[in-house]
Amino acid sequence: MDIRKLQKIAVAALEDIKAKDIEVLNTSKISALFDRVIIATGDSNRHVRSLARNVYDKVKEAGGEVIGIEGEETGEWVLVDLGDIVVHVMQPAVRVYYNLEELWKVVPKRPRKKADSDAGGE
Asked: Is the pTM above the cut of 0.85?
């Protein structure tokens, strides 16, 4: 399945059940394992589990492949592995603590300034 279509299905599934703060990160330049990370917040254990299960169900209904789902037992953080996309659904405190957005953020490299390379050379 095309990654744009898969992303659209996953985000729509999260929006259907009122996920909060949905963020899609393009990780294709920093990881060979997957191309996107989708992070969303649920209000409670039950809400987090329902959001993750809805992503699972909607992707399956559309003919997509779900590699696996982890964390449904506790419902604090549920991961849905869609192959090219990994969906993380978390409770607010867990999301703040692990701060995945910062971990997977792509920071562009700064070009070296001529002054930096010449410093201390004279």
From this structure: no
Token pair listed for 51: 């959001």
What do you get for the CA distance between the two ends of the chain, in Å? 58
Q: What are 25's strand-pairing partners?
A: 37
Q: Do 78 and 49 meet the contact criterion of CB atoms below 8 Å apart?
A: yes
Non-local (6+) Cβ contacts of 57 within 8 A are 13
pLDDT digit string, tens, across residues 65-75: 999 999 999 99
Structure tokens, 115: 């002054």
